[in-house]
Design goal:
Length: about 325
């Protein structure tokens, strides 16, 4: 794996040669991939290079305070770029239609912290290091000396986005990936002049009443299985519609149930279309990535996702068998 120094050299050389630059992360951008994109775009701008963040459909409302003056475009098949920088995913399956950019690009740089599982993006330069808590943390460690010397508005813009990437991927330091190194990087970012309590409020507490009502409806579906060690909950399209929400408005619902006593794993089934479910799997001790991969998904050991086409009752039954086996492994 290349070092952070060679990653920095590679990026600086590539952006100086490129005639056009695209930055993108996985479908349904999250507070790591998208905020790291915002930070990198601003950094490139301070180095004299324009870029475009290309997103698929989905609400960016959650990031409105973090994306001032950012250049963001929605995917169309007319776009193409000389340099494509992919953040926070390593599978072409996670790029949606934007995977088309890879074929026509002069160069592809990949920066990620997920375990590679399938359909690995064919990049000219890859930096995949799973020990990093977020891609934003990689960007910080790579460019921290550059960032520290920027004028205040640029420095704060970048620091706020990189800090938010850590908030997102640790769930405000509540996930098992939080360790001394995470606090060290968060401390370095804080020293750039940001206010963590304001970023926490902006990112986690900034909910509308209808988002909260929706959360309540999802929580009312809770079922416990396998000696109350596995929690299932689900949402229907109707719940989103009656609260006038997009699926992107409501993220991280699983965090509301992480404190339930005696749990080993959580699965949230979100209906995205009739008989199409997005599965969000969470666990501290079980490797839910192994289960997600079996359904064509992936992510991290303790937090993974996948899609399932079929009846909700069928996937629930299948997952209970998976979890029954997984629990046996930790009970031995
Ligand atoms: Mn991430």
């Amino acid at each position: 794996m290349p070092s952070l120094i060679s990653l920095r050299d590679e990026i600086i050389l590539s952006i100086s040669k490129a005639s056009s630059i695209c930055i993108m992360s996985h479908i349904n951008p999250d507070g790591d991939g998208f905020c790291a994109s915002l930070a990198l775009q601003r950094l490139f701008r301070t180095m004299g290079h324009k870029s475009v963040i290309v997103v698929d459909q989905g609400s960016l409302k959650r990031y409105e305070n973090l994306m001032k003056d950012a250049r963001i475009e929605l995917y169309t098949d007319e776009l193409n770029f000389d340099l494509v920088v992919v953040l926070d995913c390593n599978s072409t399956d996670r790029l949606g239609e934007r995977k088309q950019f890879l074929a026509s690009a002069g160069k592809v740089i990949l920066i990620d912290h997920h375990v590679p599982e399938h359909n690995l993006i064919n990049a000219d330069y890859s930096f995949i290091e799973t020990s990093f808590v977020s891609v934003g943390a990689i960007v910080h460690q790579c460019f921290k000396d550059d960032i520290a010397h920027l004028p205040e508005p640029d420095r704060l813009f970048i620091a706020e986005n990189l800090y938010t990437s850590i908030l997102n991927d640790t769930n405000n330091y509540a996930n098992a990936n939080t360790n001394a190194e995470v606090f060290r990087i968060a401390s370095e970012i804080t020293q750039l002049g940001i206010h963590p309590h304001l970023l926490y409020k902006q990112y986690f507490l900034n909910q509308t009443a209808s988002e909260m009502r929706y959360t309540g409806q999802v929580l009312s579906t809770i079922e416990l299985h396998l000696n109350k060690r596995i929690l299932f909950m689900d949402s229907t399209l109707e719940m989103l519609q009656e609260n006038e929400l997009d699926d992107e408005d409501v993220m991280n619902i699983t965090r509301w149930v992480q404190g339930v006593k005696g749990l080993e794993a959580i699965v949230y089934f979100r209906e995205e279309a009739p008989n199409l479910y997005k599965l969000s799997l969470r666990s501290v001790r079980l490797n839910v990535n192994q289960i997600a991969v079996r359904y064509g998904g992936g992510g991290h050991r303790s937090a993974s996702g996948a899609h399932y086409k079929g009846e909700l009752s069928t996937i629930k039954k299948e997952l209970l068998e998976e979890f029954s086996r997984a629990l046996d492994t930790i009970d031995q």
